[in-house]
Amino acid sequence: MKLPIATTKILEVKSEALHNLQILHLSDLHINKKTTLCEIKQLINICKNIAYDFIALTGDIIDCKAKEIKPQLELLNSLEKVYYISGNHDLFYGIEPLKQSLNNFTFLDNTTTFFTYKNRQIAIAGLSDRFSKFFKIKREEKKITNFLKANPISILLAHQPKDYTFAINSNTKLFLCGHTHGGQIFPFHYFVKLVQPFLAGTFYKQQTCIYVNRGLGTWGIDFRYKANNEITLLKLVYK
């Protein structure tokens, strides 16, 4: 895993309460048996040198069974204020062992909570990945949507861009996701666009700001072309 230099993106949001909130967005780490402890330590050092309010980790953390990379996952636990949701790879390799390994993180699959920012309660919710049904895990879509509708200052995390519709329909101010790898290897960008509404970057739909992270790791071939990986600090600006 070749780590990039962290970058900052300015996102315009339709909520004054979210103004200047800083979210460190990570996605698609795809940690496997080839991922070294040194690489994990480097990632942690990068994160700890960034001033953020919380970390959003939008799925596909692992690319093998959690027990095979226990030291790497234990190191990740040194990161603070992390909210995460499942990706399809996490479900395939075992979400329960992953949850047990990441005991310092807040798991948000089909779950809702609040965090305090400038003395205000900000709602945050997460959806399990769309592949959940293949693993007999029910997606609590109605529960999440109702929660977001009841809390107008809200953020939704999901793995796939397709789930942006839940954010739109509930008037959620920010939707964060990953999954696409930005296409990973050109010209596969075009194939990704056939099945996902967004490839990478920032998009605006109605009252919702959408950010699709290209992720850190790779899948299949350990190579990227015209789809650089990213560690991104999202700075929200009310407009």
Instruction: Describe the strand arrangement of the main beta sheet, using strand numbers.
Output: 1-12-2-3-4-5
- Calculate the mean pLDDT score and round it: 96
Q: Count up the helices.
A: 7
- Uncertain spans: none
Spatial shape: globular
- As a percent range, the share of strand residues is 25-35%
Helix content: 10-25%
Note the quaternary state here: single chain
Order of helices and strands: EEHEHEHHEEEHEHEHEEE
- In total, how many beta strands? 12
- The class by helix and strand makeup works out as alpha/beta
Terminal residue distance: 36 Å
Main sheet attributes: strand count, strand direction, barrel closure: 6 strands, mixed
What's the gyration radius in Å? 16 Å
Characterize the structure shown.
The protein is α/β, with parallel strands linked by helices. The protein contains seven helices and twelve strands. It has a six-stranded mixed sheet, with no helix packed on it. It has a six-stranded mixed sheet with strand order 6-7-8-9-11-10. It starts with 6 loop residues before the first strand and ends with a strand. The mean pLDDT is 96.
